[in-house]
Predict the 3D structure of the following.
Amino acid sequence: MNKNELLALLQPDIEQINETMHSEISQCGNALLQQILEYALFNGGKRIRPILTVLSARLCAFSRMPEGLAEEDELKPPVNLYLLAAIFEFLHGASLLHDDVIDNAGKRRGRPSANSVWDNTQVILAGDFLHARALTIAGTVGDQHTLSLIGHATAAMIQAEFLQMQTVQERNLSEKNYFSVLRGKTGCLISAACEVGAYFAQSGDAHQKALRSYGDALGLAFQVVDDLLDYQGDPGKTGKAVGNDFVEGKMTLPLIHALQNCDRKEFDRIMGLLKENPSARAGQIGEVYAFIEQYGGFDYARQGAETLVEAANEALAVFPDCQSRKILTGLANYVLTRQK
Amino acid sequence: MNKNELLALLQPDIEQINETMHSEISQCGNALLQQILEYALFNGGKRIRPILTVLSARLCAFSRMPEGLAEEDELKPPVNLYLLAAIFEFLHGASLLHDDVIDNAGKRRGRPSANSVWDNTQVILAGDFLHARALTIAGTVGDQHTLSLIGHATAAMIQAEFLQMQTVQERNLSEKNYFSVLRGKTGCLISAACEVGAYFAQSGDAHQKALRSYGDALGLAFQVVDDLLDYQGDPGKTGKAVGNDFVEGKMTLPLIHALQNCDRKEFDRIMGLLKENPSARAGQIGEVYAFIEQYGGFDYARQGAETLVEAANEALAVFPDCQSRKILTGLANYVLTRQK
């Protein structure tokens, strides 16, 4: 299943999700707030998180049907599911709005960022609004368990931001620490998106756990590939300068692996660069790239991402081999081939 | 009941609230985050919002007791009530953290503000964490209705911030608009604090409504007095420069009243000042003060606050004349005499 086939299959759900989001935003009670939310949330995002909620629910519902009773595509999810799914886009959007203010970012997905169009005040408040609506929907359209899952994921995202700042400051080189940051920043929300879908479909513990594991591995694989693209991507496609993570002092898996396998002299040289200021590092990307390549850091990270995608797909083995499962597998495989 | 008598009566509840907050913060999962939250939330705040939740619950519970069955002070609220009460301090704290980043404030209650001690990143994230925990507690320790009340109040706070920005920009002179901003920024959260207490105590609609009305009027009165203190307070006590609202271009009740009652020439003169930049206005505070006084703006606002406090106390008439009611009345009356 290639990218275009996947997109075509997902289109009807994406449209429902977008419609639900427009409708929810239109009730925000202030014209300017509505404008900022529309701008921030409709910027070409792929709706991957809400899609995972809808597909997970459909997969669980279909798994329970007596054979031959219904065609899978006849299982139309109720409106409430799309609203619960939209929560994950709201939380993601809230964190991007706050990130852009924090980083004083000028662009987001090739367009001026919200904070370059409006004041920081308005952008921070718009993020707070999305945050509050998402959690309120979680606990009122969903229930206490749904809220608890989503509240946990939100807290984990914030804890991971703090852990990442400390990691950079301490120049912490442990893979365990690296994956803890990834899990908090991306994995938790993605696995919650899958688990909430399964829970909504009233599936049993085994199915909920399977989708949680799928989401966790998918989220980690996505981030490892992101970290690879930071060094190896085409800036024309990714929209980011090559080696940006290194310039910012972030130690990602390719670099961590190389540093753990080089000799003392090289180790000291690279760690020395990490202690300099960002502009000093910007001129050393070529050297660092060659260093990582020499010690197999890129291959190691690529293999790590492949193993995670296999784990994601294996987690789905408890489900029948149906269309929803094929799409989820297709999404996981796509992570390895994406170029932006 | 004077301020010291009130504080003495409230002390045991304040201690329980503080203990609950410490315990909740200690579970935040990151040492630095915990440090920021402790700093931001334990800065000499009076815990007025959580106190209102506890008092409202106790008043409702006592009102239902058959006469003589229990002493009021024997009605020890369950631990869960203190946790629900703490939500209001968390939401208030989250909005102060974000406000201080937005305003680039250097001080808060006479101490360096959190954003002068830590980075904006950390402070925004700490606010997000409080926000997320508050709503998660609302819907899991409380229930869907509790979450819905608190979610509504949170959204109202953000809508009111947008309304206020537009009010300043449009130089909107309507009293209705002025009170809409106050209600959103302060009234909604305070009335929710009261209503959640009543709801927790399983009181009927009439008692819930009475406490909601009390909170609404109390919150408005508090803000009107705040706006009076901005012109008439002692900077040594309030910690703010005299006329700060006018410098920022905010039109509060005393000024609105004067502008609605002056002649055309004076109107144009003051409106002209409002179109200048803040530093130009800073030199005109004396003139503006005299202008407001001449047209009775301060008296008018003072009377408005008194009427609101009367309304708050009248809303409590449905309850028996017990200690909790006396304290709530005392708190409302205190609003009129406070000097900071």
